[in-house]
Write a structure and sequence with these properties.
The protein has helices at 8-17, 34-55, 61-85, 94-102, 109-129, 154-161, 189-201, 213-225, 240-255, 272-292, 309-321, 326-333, 337-349, 357-363, 366-378, 384-392; strands spanning 2-5, 24-27, 140-145, 165-169, 230-236, 260-265, 404-408, 414-418. The protein is α/β, with parallel strands linked by helices and 420 residues long. The strands form three sheets. It has a four-stranded parallel sheet, sandwiched between helices. Strand 5, helix 9 and strand 6 (260-265) form a beta-alpha-beta unit. Helix 6 (154-161) crosses helix 10 (272-292) and helix 10 crosses helix 11.
Length: 420
Amino acid sequence: MVVPITCDCKKKIAGMLQDSCEIMTLHVPASREDDDIDEYVRQLYELMARLEDVTGNTVTYETLAEGFRKVGLAQYELSEFIRLKKNTPYLIRGSHAMTMLNAAAYMSAERWAAAMHTVNAELKQKAVAGQTVTSKKLPRILLTGSPIVFPNVKIPLLIEEMGGIVAGDETCMGERGMWDPAVIVDDSFDGMMRALANRALRPCPCPTFADNTQRIYRLKQLIKDNQIQGVIYHVLRGCLVYDYEYKKIEEELGALDIPVIRLESDYNEEDVEQLRIRIEAFIELIKRYVAENDIERPQDIVVRSVVNKSGLKVYIIQSIDRRKSLEDIAASKGITMDALLTEMEHIISSGAKLNIDYYIDEVIDDDHQEVLLDYWRSAESDSIEEAYAEFKKMDIGDNIGLEGFVFKTKTGEVTVHAKK
């Protein structure tokens, strides 16, 4: 198994898999200087030699050139697919398009190109016949961040279930995976090997690179070309390089007045409801702004601070994700703490989770937290008013629950020897 080392997680995976099979690592450099390219070319030669040993096949000038031809054909079909995918009304759902692009990682370039040629032919026929997946003007969403890998496609499916459409996919399992062609300036064998290294590193917008201005440029290009109205930034739990880069992306998109929301997920279905409420609120924000401002063309949209419930809901969720104090959240929106807590109750009752442990730890010490937990574990009602009335009866040092044995003091008073 060949494992490209782009981060500490990949390095750990390589170590864990060594007991199961032979592992060969490719160390991806953090920069794109000429020395880095030379080192990567050296690794590619080592990989080639090992593949020849394992398969018994020899990589010749002709077979390498044929590989370039097959990948080039796949890239041509990709460009056609992207062109057809931009059609309005939509010829294909974004979630279906993402799955097809994902398939490139599991098929040979030749097989994938043949399959995409068939898909493109069908889409062209649909365009002529006027057969579209919907006639509605749906919010156009761009997905970026950590890769969304089949079969873990819950986020694109939720986007379209909530009334949006995935109009662009900037993840490494999407369009960018095969977008940039290899440029051969020297048609020797070594020239082709260097073209492979250059193609893998120089245009790549992966956040593993220290200087990643190319990714910001590519995002802006996708937003313009696909008439994007909102960006969902996906962070796979534990994928730190994408998480670190979110703030920079948020600032850049904020300057363009493009709304962006950060979603963290994992390879399971436990967070589906949490994701659903966040995606629903985000898409509702865009829909409402379009309706209120009578926007006909997607490129006309500029979503600013719209004062409505959906916008407030998104702001609260994002602010809690950033661990802002509740007082600061309320003050920034010009609402009272009571109004903020009411809105938080609505968010939670609709299925989302809000983790405010950081705020509780800041304002309530551990002992008082334990007292509160003991009360709610035994309380017969979830009424805040009843809890407040109960705690008003107490004084500092009062015990509201203990375990032990009953005994009499020297003065004859009955009391409890507390053990817990």
